[in-house]
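B., you asked whether I could sanity-check this one before it goes into the benchmark set. Here's the sequence:
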Amino acid sequence: MIHILMSQSRIVYISRRTERKKPQRVKRRRTAVFWIGIAFLTVVIAASGGVLVVTRISALQINEISVFSSASSPDVETVEEVTALALEGTVWGIIPKRFFLAISPEDIEEFLLKKFPRFSSVNVRVSGRRIEVSVQERQLFAVMCGGRAEEGKERLISEPPCAYVDTKGILYEQAPESSGNLILSIIRDTVLPPAPSPILDDSTLILM
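And here's what the prediction gave me:
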């Protein structure tokens, strides 16, 4: 026992058993935290394993791509192949992009617009295990060819030399030089900007 002498000649007795309670409580808390951590890690590992298994079940993955186009003779097979490329790989290195819940229509739309500049719009919809792709093609207005431009002592040539322009004045895709009268041909004194780019405003389109 420990004796503590107080100012009023009182003696207070403190049990050694009371002194030992605090270390025991700390030890118990540490043990509880340890086992909670182990349980949490076990749940995370089990959940990750479950995700790996479930997301790779063939019945839950996209198995069909349908393409609808406004063009009279659309290159459907090519669009299907490029759409399939957008579904390759995984999300976060775990979930296959073909897993129907991992499909991002916006990402596929952006991917197709970059691959096909001639599309003015792309709409992607997921229906069960099928992806439906609707594309709207640009309406051809003219072929524009860039000229040579002086820059210091060097002479620059447009790359590409000619490109298609749609009815909204957007230069969008490389084109062969036009020599006939069936398609409006526009010659530009300076080099062409990179496609897609607005090249003709509304007032210019009306005059043409």
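One thing to flag: The longest helix spans residues 16-54. Otherwise nothing jumped out at me.
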